């Protein structure tokens, strides 16, 4: 405590007095605020005087009581001090006596030994009646166990164990030193007791083995004699309680009874699991070459065994055990672990992909479904999500990758075989098949697409992740398929060029391939739905469409090459004097085009329109090239007029043919021929610059070389006029529109001899 100084104490008193005066002044001003209240002043003065006297008397009384208590306390402290001094003196005298004595405790050791022997003999004498009955009780316990009177056997066993433990406890208590809590039991005595009670431990083990046997066949016992199973559970519960009690221990318990803890509940559950696994896994041993059908039967039998086991447990076994055992959940985990071990054993074999699919489908779909672990008969007792998958996620992922790899290899083989069949069909001496609309039909793309979609649909049963993985693999294999198809088409075209009479239906089969690509293009989106496609699928789909377009265009080019090969000889005489005089070359060309259109009508739109447009373009290019590469030169104005007239007739005949083929109006061939015809119909050469300007406005890709080659055909264009026309073309250089379809770029121009050059024979 802090001691206040004199100044602080004086200041505190002054402050208290000041506060008291202030409070009194406030009270007086409140009471005597009016003059008429002053008459009561004497009365208030007497009352306050009486109150002060009362307070002072109480203070004096309290102070007197405090002083008396202090005096009494001091008197007691004096007495205590005197007693302590007496005790110190006595202890000092005892210490002196102890130091002068010569080890008196050693003289008491024989007495202590006699006491111990007396205690041991008293224990033996007290236990003799019970010890005499031990062999009989052991035999009786064994007889009760054999007759399955388990509760009576357990009572007898507990009596024997209590007797044994009591004797051991008394022995250790007799051996314990008085000044220590340590336990020291004589080994010979303990061994003698343990040997005498050896049968008790054997009976305990026999009873435990009986309980394990009952647990292993718990379902059969619960059906035939549920009271026996209930008795076994009661015994286990008692022993678990005793195990827990011994584990906790107490301050008075300085030792542990032998044979504890027994852990009979753990043994019961282990035996129960063994019985469950034996019943559920009652399958034939796995063979090396496990077929898909055998594996499907095995998994079906396993599914039925698990469902039957869990239904029996819920309906028969669960009512026989306490709720805290949570037996349905426990048995579900037992089945789960047994199935996991069996599946790992199955997956350790090199399974073919159909068998592997059965396992994966069973694991991902069947196992957690309402047909197995999620069965409604025990769904309220078992949480499927708590069980988890029967194989670890990393192992499942490994098997999914393995399955994907197998499927890709099989798809590649199947596609190669289908392509071999398709290419062999191309050589047949019969027309390709047609669909219900009369279009040529190729089954190759349909077979491949159907094969891919079937595998994707199968993979969908394994989860969205596996479905997307198979979609990606299918897209890649489809792209490979299209690459192989293009290679086959190239070989097909090369073989046909060696002998154009073989195969007979070359063009028809090409059109069938084109139709197949069109059908495939319409169904390719099935492999990659936008709402569920992965990033890999979204990247692969455009590439696949590009590859599909390449394949289709390759077939289209082969078809057009076939037509071009047939038409090229007919263009050699254009222009020529027989052509001017009315040869039938253009008519033959038109007839061949009309025949070709009969094939094109068997192609689906829009490829049919594309082939028609390319046919027109090809005919146009060949016609213009024949004009540009021709050695023919008009000798007179009459021949120029005759040539213009002939070109007009050709344009009209080609227009009629193209309309017959299905084109409503020619946008390239006829307009170009008529535009070129004007170059020859013009009688005044000086107007050629204007005509060339109009030609450039319509066909801006026409070059100077093209124009000069065409003007050579007129035969009347001078060098100065050529220069003027070229200058005009340079001044009128146009930018090609974005949507313009090039035509003259595809027409090669013959290399002209350089000016002022010697005759070619001189350079040889």
Describe this structure in a few short sentences.
The chain has 764 residues and is an all-alpha fold.
Description:
- The C terminus is likely disordered.
- This protein is elongated.
- The longest helix is centred in the first third of the chain and has 60 residues.
- With 764 residues, the chain is mainly α.
Give the low-pLDDT segments.
Answer: 177-185, 755-764
* Helical amount: over 70%
- Tell me what portion of residues adopts beta-strand conformation: under 5%
Sheet of most strands: none
Label the overall shape.
elongated
- How far the N terminus sits from the C terminus, by CA atoms, comes to 136 Å
The oligomeric state of the chains shown is single chain
Which structural class best describes the helix and strand composition?
Answer: mainly alpha
- Summed up, the helix count is 26
Q: SSE order, as H and E?
A: HHHHHHHHHHHHHHHHHHHHHHHHHH
Whole-number radius of gyration?
Answer: 58 Å
Q: What is the number of strand segments?
A: 0
Integer average pLDDT: 82
Furnish the topology, listing elements before pairings.
Layout: H1 6-31, H2 41-100, H3 109-146, H4 150-175, H5 187-196, H6 198-216, H7 218-224, H8 226-248, H9 264-280, H10 292-317, H11 327-347, H12 353-366, H13 384-387, H14 393-426, H15 443-460, H16 464-498, H17 506-523, H18 535-567, H19 577-580, H20 585-600, H21 607-628, H22 637-661, H23 669-681, H24 688-698, H25 704-714, H26 719-731
Helix pairs in contact: 3-4, 3-6, 4-5, 4-6, 6-9, 7-8, 7-10, 9-11, 10-11, 10-12, 12-14, 14-15, 14-16, 15-16, 15-17, 16-18, 17-18, 18-21, 20-22, 21-23, 22-23, 23-24, 24-26
């Amino acid at each position: 405590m802090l001691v206040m100084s004199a100044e602080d104490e004086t200041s505190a008193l002054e402050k208290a007095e000041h506060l008291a005066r202030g409070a009194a002044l406030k009270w007086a001003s409140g009471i005597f605020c009016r003059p008429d209240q002053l008459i009561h002043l004497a009365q208030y003065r007497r009352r306050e005087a009486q109150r002060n006297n009362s307070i002072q008397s109480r203070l004096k009384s309290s102070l007197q009581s405090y002083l008396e208590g202090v005096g009494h306390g001091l008197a007691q402290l004096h007495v205590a001090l005197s007693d302590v001094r007496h005790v110190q003196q006595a202890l000092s005298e005892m210490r002196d006596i102890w130091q002068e004595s010569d080890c008196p405790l050693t003289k008491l050791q024989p007495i202590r030994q006699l006491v111990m022997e007396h205690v041991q003999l008293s224990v033996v004498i007290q236990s003799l009646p019970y010890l005499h009955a031990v062999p009989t009780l052991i035999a009786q316990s064994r007889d009760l166990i054999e007759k399955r009177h388990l509760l009576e056997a357990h009572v007898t066993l507990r009596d024997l164990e209590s007797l044994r433990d009591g004797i051991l406890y008394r022995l250790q208590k007799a051996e314990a030193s008085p000044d220590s809590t340590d336990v020291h039991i004589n080994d010979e005595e303990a061994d003698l007791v343990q040997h005498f009670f050896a049968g008790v431990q054997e009976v305990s083990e026999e009873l435990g083995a009986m309980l394990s046997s009952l647990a292993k066949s718990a379902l059969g016992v619960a059906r035939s004699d549920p009271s026996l199973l209930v008795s076994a559970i009661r015994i286990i519960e008692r022993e678990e309680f005793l195990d827990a009690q011994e584990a906790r221990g107490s301050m008075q318990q300085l030792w542990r009874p032998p044979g504890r803890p027994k852990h009979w509940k753990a043994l019961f559950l282990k035996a129960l699991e063994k019985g469950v696994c034996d019943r559920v896994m009652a399958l034939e041993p796995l063979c090396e070459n496990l077929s898909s059908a055998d594996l499907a039967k095995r998994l079906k039998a396993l599914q039925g065994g698990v469902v039957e086991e869990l239904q029996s447990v819920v309906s028969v076994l669960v009512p026989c055990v306490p709720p805290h055992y949570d037996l349905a959940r426990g048995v579900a985990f037992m089945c789960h672990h047994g199935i996991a071990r069996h599946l790992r054993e199955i997956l350790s074999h090199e399974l073919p992909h159909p068998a592997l699919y059965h396992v994966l489908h069973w694991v991902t779909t069947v196992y957690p479904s309402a047909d197995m672990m999620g069965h409604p008969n025990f769904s309220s007792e078992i949480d499927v999500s708590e069980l988890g998958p029967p194989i670890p996620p990393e192992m499942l992922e490994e098997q999914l990758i393995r399955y994907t790899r197998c499927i890709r290899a099989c798809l590649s083989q199947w596609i190669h075989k289908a392509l071999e069949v398709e290419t062999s069909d191309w050589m047949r001496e019969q027309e390709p098949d047609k669909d219900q609309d009369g279009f040529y039909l190729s089954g190759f793309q349909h077979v491949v697409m159907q094969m891919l979609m079937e595998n994707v649909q199968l993979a969908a049963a394994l989860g969205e992740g596996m479905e997307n993985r198979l979609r990606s693999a299918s897209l890649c294999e489809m792209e490979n398929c299209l690459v192989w198809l293009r290679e086959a088409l190239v070989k097909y075209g090369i073989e046909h060029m060696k002998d154009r009479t073989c195969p007979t239906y070359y063009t028809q089969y090409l059109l069938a391939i084109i139709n197949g690509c069109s059908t495939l293009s319409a169904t390719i989106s099935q492999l990659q739905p936008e709402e569920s496609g992965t990033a890999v699928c979204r990247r692969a789909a455009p590439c696949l469409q590009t590859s599909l377009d390449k394949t289709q265009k390759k077939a289209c080019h082969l078809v057009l090459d076939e037509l071009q090969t047939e038409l090229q000889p007919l263009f050699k005489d254009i222009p020529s004097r027989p052509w001017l005089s009315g040869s039938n070359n253009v008519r033959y060309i038109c007839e061949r085009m009309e025949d070709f259109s009969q094939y094109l009508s068997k192609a689906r739109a829009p490829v049919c329109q594309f082939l028609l447009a390319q046919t027109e373009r090809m005919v146009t290019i060949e016609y213009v090239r024949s004009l540009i590469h021709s050695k023919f030169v008009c000798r007179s104005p009459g021949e120029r007029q005759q040539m213009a007239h002939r070109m007009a007739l050709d344009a009209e005949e080609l227009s009629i043919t193209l309309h017959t083929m299905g084109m409503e109006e020619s946008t390239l061939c006829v307009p170009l021929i008529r535009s070129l015809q004007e170059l020859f119909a013009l009688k005044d050469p000086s107007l050629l610059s204007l005509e060339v300007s109009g030609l450039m406005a319509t066909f801006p890709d026409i070059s100077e070389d093209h124009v000069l080659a065409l003007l050579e055909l007129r035969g009347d264009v001078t060098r100065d006029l050529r220069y003027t026309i070229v200058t005009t073309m340079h001044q009128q250089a146009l930018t090609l529109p974005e949507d313009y379809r090039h035509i003259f770029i595809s027409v090669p121009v013959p290399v002209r001899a350089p000016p002022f050059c010697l005759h070619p024979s001189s350079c040889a």
